[in-house]
Amino acid sequence: MSTSLQATKKHTKRSPKIVISADDLEHLEGLADGMMRRQPALADRLFDEIARARIVASSKMPKNVVSMGSRVTYRDEATGQEKSVTLVYPEEADIARLRVSVTTPIGVALLGLAEGASFHWETRGNQRRMLTIIQVEQPAATR
Taking a C-beta distance cutoff of 8 angstroms, is the pair 115, 135 a contact? Predict the structure, then answer.
């Protein structure tokens, strides 16, 4: 049992499992397609994340997983600093309000991750960082 747990942890460190809502899938694919000319490497990364994601109905989306509109707190393992941001579509992005676009390197990295997941990501300055998801809060239902 401990051997399979270690194998799971090793796999998780390389590529944490991700989950994406079916409601967001078409919009995300359209964004990645539109990014191909301006930011082909980032577009490829978003397509890769979509391709490896488990797609679920919005009603089945786990509450502890980063999705569009989620407020996520993560820790930079190199500095120990924690930061909270909201993952949004590009038209809603506003860095002054800590609203991060899913079409940025950190946005692509956060998409679909669950609390407790750690992942590497490349900054725009080509620095490799390890981040850990501390907390995920979903937006209040708008009904």
Answer: yes
pLDDT tens digits, one per residue of 88-129: 999 999 999 999 999 998 899 999 999 999 988 776 677 888
Cα–Cα distance, 101 to 53 (Å, whole number):
19
Helix axes 40-52, 22-35, angle to 10 degrees: 160
Smallest CA-to-CA distance from 87 within 102, 103, 65 is with 102
Q: Among all chains, which residue has been given the structure tokens 């990645």? A: 32
Over residues 35-68, the pLDDT tens digits come to 999 999 999 999 999 999 999 999 999 999 999 9
Phi-psi region of 80 (alpha: psi -120 to 50; beta: other; left: phi over 0): left
CA distances to 65, 121, 132, 133 from 78, rounded to whole Å, are 23, 12, 11, 14
pLDDT for 143 equals 37
